[in-house]
Amino acid sequence: MGRDEEVVLLRKAVADVAAGRGRALLVEGEPGIGKSALLAAGLARAVDAGCVVLHGVCDALGQRFPLSVMKEALGIDEGSSDPRRAAAATALSSSVEAGAWGVAGDPVMAAVERVLGLVDRLTADGPLVLIVEDLHWLDEASVILWRGMCRAATQSPLLLVGSYRPTAGLTTIEQVRRVVLETGGLVIPLHPLPPSCVTTMASDILGAEPGIALTEQLRLASGNPLYVRELLDALRRADAVHLVAGRAELRTGAAPVAIVSLAGVIADRLDFLSGEVRDVLRTAALLGPDFSVTDLAAIVGRPVPELVPVLEGAIAVGVVEPYRRRLRFRHGLLRQTLYEAMPTAVRSAMYRHAAQVLFRGGASVERVAQLVLNIPEEADGWELDWIAENAVALTHRSPGITSELLERALRQLRESDPRYAVLEDQLGVVAYLLGRWDQAERLARLARVRAMGDPERLCRADWLLGRSLQRMGRSSEALEALTAAVTEPGRPPAWLARLNALRSSSLRARLQVDEAEMVALNALDTAERTTDPVGMAFALHSLSMQRVTASDLEAGLAYVDRALAVSAGHDDLADLHLQMLGNRFTMLTDLDRLPEATEGARQALALAERIGNIPRLDDLRVQAASVISYPQGRWDDALTDLELASEVPAGSMMGIIRCSHLALIAAHRDDGAEAARQVEMLARVKAGAAKLGPEIMVRAAQAAQAERSGRPDLGVEELRPLLAPDSDAATLERGSFLPALTRLATSIQDSGTAHAAVEVAECEDDFSSTPQGAAVALWCRGLLDRTPEAIEGAAAYYRRSGRTAMLGFVLEDAAESWAATGEHDKARPLLAEALGIYSNLGAIWTVRRAMARLRVHGVRPGVRGMRQRPTTGWQALTDSELRIAELVAKGWSNPDIAGQLMLSRRTVETHVSHILAKLRITSRREVARLVGETD
């Protein structure tokens, strides 16, 4: 009532989603203002429009357990008749035995990714309306899921609808609102009803228009519909309303109704219940906004048939109502009032009893954990046993909740209790998994002290300590701790191999390369004799990195392939497996095996996303963009991965590589503002870093921006330090930018720098002996001596290896060199080919640079200016986008496309967003229509 405009908005959203255009909507309002009633009215036609409608309600109890409301709303259950839902439920409930080295990834993020994949597949079947009420109780993992679903709604037939109470300072709601608005969604605020609507509502309820005194009484409701209804019901229960001259009026002489708040009228309704019904409902209030009758009967200790009349009475007076195969409180305030009416001691005892009953009845660990979390720390022992027995399983499903339970349990136990060591060790694993390296270090050191006489526990503690110190970048301390560990007597051989394998990595980080290789070889030998995959994988990984440092890529690749074979399928080695997959495709790139490298990168990205290892996934995205997409000239694909890796810390090695490539692409594409922004960020990082990792990338980005700004001299100043023997730049990285330094130096007649660059290119044995190094040396020599034949010889390598971007640069230099010698006929085709490459790259500024360089010698391209790459329409789509568009047109979901093309689901989602923007359409259905028209 009084919500006509809001109802129209919701019905329009239903019509849009039925036509294939999704969006996100939020309904905001105080308790009782009519949010649920509005959703019921506005979305009533969704099923008739061909939509599947799903519904969930958040609550304070479920807030503490990740994704509980979303799993229930989406019907993710192992008993589901939908195999996709059942498979998702099985995957989410599976438990990984977490060793002291940590589990595969973040289980919560892995669960989020699985649910997003399910939503994608459900919307591929047809339009979906997902309603989630009371978002102010949304858990943090579900906020991340909500963000992903909002993105999905911009390209899929998904209508995502939520409701919430406005609560000051609640960050979850602020995040939800922000992402809805950022993705083009809508927030609908519900205001109090005007007096005319209150009068109409009262007339409908009472069957007569309210009189003057009753109307005055209804002002207490302040336009809140629930308050109006509850106030009228309270007055009728008190027999305080009667008909006078056809109007409903307060009865003269009736007992005064001193109810002045919504909470008051709710309490009045509950007081009307019998004591038996109220006692049963108090127990039900512990179980959440909705509950199973079977669970309730078990907890109160009464057979279901005996309980049915009691619940029917609660339904009759409007306290609970049927909901799916369960019952639920008609309004959250009813449950809240019952809940808060229980003394704290009584409530705690009931929680303990309920948890015990449900556990004995075979309830899931999540369900029991929800109740155990509400038991105070003065435990009686049963829940401590339960935590100790279920901590490993719970770790995989919710490490944050597990950490809270373990810390609480440890505060209640004496160190002499046999359970203490088990719980303390598991807390160390959870801390490591959550990235709390300092806590993991502290717990590992405590465990070392308490593990005397227990060699197995001592080894686990040393392993956790070494890993934590390494993750915090404290390689010297890690080396000291691991060296002390392996020199202590009595270590089991398998653990000795693991610890030495880890120690070899710390030795390499301290540049003790010879000792590092010897230690790794000994560790590998011991691990192989004890058939321990963990020791073998870490030792092989260390050896592979030793060989790469020595520029022996073939040997490094052989080691990493062996390590991948050992670690495949081991959940406890998944993070190392991902790291080595990244190393492998980088090695393949350096070996000019780009098709294999591309395939390897896709596999690594898909695996990292599937297991929820988000930090490693972001690192791999940056790695793939920088070593595969950028040199191959797939700059739009590179930008997609760099955009998705926005959470990489700016000061980390991958963060620096990310900013550098964003700056390089922006400079070549003449986006001065973006290039300057990224260079400024790199300058801040460089100023604050004691030792900069990928030095070459920072200098290359700054040099490109300097040249674009008309200051080639500054570009030379940026790149010249790379010639120093003690430069931090790796050999291969330095070689890649020596031609640019030589070109810039010759352009400003800095012959000393130009000769030095050529000397470095020709004298670095580890680099110049490779095909890429030989091409760089030839290129630099040709620039210095003005021998275009040499530069063309280098171009042959880049054409053959598929390094398209670098091919454009070398062709430009060859064309300029031929033109400088007066060979204009030889210069023109090379310039035309370079301009074609630049056009495909969108490198507007680089085109201008090439034309300006050749114009000095009287050479102009055969066509005026640059062949502008279209920004809209089919011609604007990249090869990757065209392939994805074809599969979208066939009705494939994003995760299915990702599986087919060996991409991550998120990468496909981003490509689909770009496709819709370039084609100027708003739904996947329109992609299918356009593909059909082009056929």
TrEMBL record:
Domain HTH luxR-type: 870-935
Keyword set includes Transmembrane: no
Domain of life: Bacteria
Keyword Ubl conjugation attached: no
Organism classification: Bacteria, Bacillati, Actinomycetota, Actinomycetes, Kitasatosporales
Protein name per the record: AAA family ATPase
One of the Pfam families matching this protein, by short name: GerE
Keywords per UniProt: ATP-binding, Nucleotide-binding
Family annotation (SUPFAM superfamilies): C-terminal effector domain of the bipartite response regulators (SSF46894), P-loop containing nucleoside triphosphate hydrolases (SSF52540), TPR-like (SSF48452)
PROSITE patterns (UniProt xref): HTH_LUXR_1, HTH_LUXR_2
